[in-house]
Amino acid sequence: MSKKVKSVRIPIELEAMNLSKLIRECENYLRDLESATLLKSGGNREAAEALLSTRQLDLGKRIAKMIWEARVEYGKIR
């Protein structure tokens, strides 16, 4: 999987956002989804659900932080 972003239209406030980092976070989330699937198929449904709920909250916080940092940078430039 290529880690380079070639062309994406984003709001000017988010121009400074590190899209490669965002993609990396999504890749990590997909890896955790695969782990949860293996746990669930192995009979450990509770662990799979705990992993997914924790990772979803973590992913949301990380993305929100990246957006906030990009908006702060935009505010400094503006």
Characteristics of this structure?
single chain, about 80 residues, mainly alpha
Structure description:
The protein has 78 residues and is mainly alpha-helical. The chain contains two helices and no strands. The radius of gyration is 16 Å and the shape is elongated. The chain starts with 18 loop residues before the first helix and ends with a helix. The mean pLDDT is 85.
Break the fold down into its secondary structure elements and pairings.
Layout: H1 19-41, H2 45-77
Helix pairs in contact: 1-2
Tell me the Rg in angstroms. 16 Å
Helix percent band: over 70%
Shape designation: elongated
Count of distinct strands: 0
Order of SSEs, N→C? HH
Mean pLDDT: 85
Mind describing the biggest β-sheet? Answer: none
Q: Which percent range describes the beta-strand content?
A: under 5%
Ranges where pLDDT stays below 50 over 5 or more residues in a row are: none
Summarize the structure.
The chain is an all-alpha fold.
